[in-house]
């Protein structure tokens, strides 16, 4: 038992240490690159939060192989002359060149350049989904992941937001339940809660419309 407890303690300690290390790496990355991201925002009007979050996401906070060997922090493909790594990703002399190349890509490609006229330099949500829609990444959750990084590390604080601007509060999904009473039917319950019998059956994994008194149904 003591050995098991000691083993569990070591595992927990390792996981906590790994998490703290990852947090530290990302925070250091933000500190190192936030000023240049703000400069780019002020000049090109792309939110600094987007620039930073995309770089963090694509380079694993500067720890990925292409970030270390090619100074490529945005996962953009192209030629490189590096002999230490066999890669189809573009190589840069310095990290800042990778950041500039990201901005240039957004400005030069038709699927992205319309974003500059449509969105402000603090509407990071629209920028994230706009970049995803333009085909920057294959993952359908890419924009959500980038937005998650912005919110987690409060990168929106580096954007040019108006003084009176308030960060939108995300709606909280609250589950609603109903206890079946004598005489209840799925049809009546669905009408009462403006849903459908099919939806109630799906949510509650029901194979039939037969109910029992006291049964707890999830409405949403």
TrEMBL record:
It comes from Pedobacter psychrophilus. Residues 176-219 form the LysM domain. Keywords: Antimicrobial, Bacteriolytic enzyme, Hydrolase, Signal. PROSITE patterns: LYSM. It holds the Pfam family LysM. The lineage of its organism: Bacteria, Pseudomonadati, Bacteroidota, Sphingobacteriia, Sphingobacteriales. The keyword rRNA-binding does not apply. One of its GO terms (biological process) is killing of cells of another organism. Residues 1-22 form the signal peptide. This is Peptidoglycan hydrolase. SMART domains: LysM, LYZ2. One of its GO terms (molecular function) is amidase activity. The keyword Magnesium does not apply. InterPro entries: Glycosyl_Hydrolase_73 (IPR051056), LysM (IPR018392), LysM_dom_sf (IPR036779), MGlyc_endo_b_GlcNAc-like_dom (IPR002901).
